Amino acid sequence: MAKAAKRIAKNSEGIDRQKFYGLDEAVKLVKERANAKFNETVEIAMNLGVDPRHSDQMVRGVVNLPNGAGHNLRVGVFAKGPKAEEAKKAGAEVVGAEDLFEIVNKGQIDFDRCIATPDMMGLVGRLGKVLGPRGMMPNPKVGTVTMDVAGAVKAAKGGAVEFRVEKAGIIQAGVGKASFSDEQLNQNIKAFVDAVIKAKPPAAKGTYVKKLSISSSMGPGLKLDLASVTGGGA
Fold this sequence. Notes:
Helix content is 34%, strand content 21%. By secondary structure, the protein is of the alpha/beta class.
């Protein structure tokens, strides 16, 4: 614990917790402080001016990061027949129907993203208590309920990142790895923020993006100047 505390203190040196950093400077500082023994994920957190308890203020969607997310996402697909074969050829790790339902219903989830064909949703819907709390329930709004299972699998593998606002009005996601170049991270962060801004519900009033910050898995968080990301405001 003492060693960890010392590393955290050292990584926080030179960081002004009250300052709003420009994107370029923030990315450089985050990368410099990502010194764990593994390739840390660069994470983004957005505090939105919405109340997700109201359905008309829910914010969710999917964004294809231009440089990928930097991790090997395991994909599970509920499909039958030719669509099941398409999913397997596209690289899905787990494919099935009733057999997969039984496995998942027992709490055995060996995938990170769940995709389903529309005809499977009657079955998959019964897994709401298992997949819902993990944010893994397939949804047509984010392209995970589709007949184009091959395209959905390839998108997930290629850097498609889902986002959904939590109860406190916060969206969090990984937008790349510390090993990415500054430019790759800049592009991914801009794409993510742009997607969240475009997903603004009409019922949202006042300031939409209240706070924005980035950090590495084990590093300190830095507040971002929104204008440096969007070129304006939101």
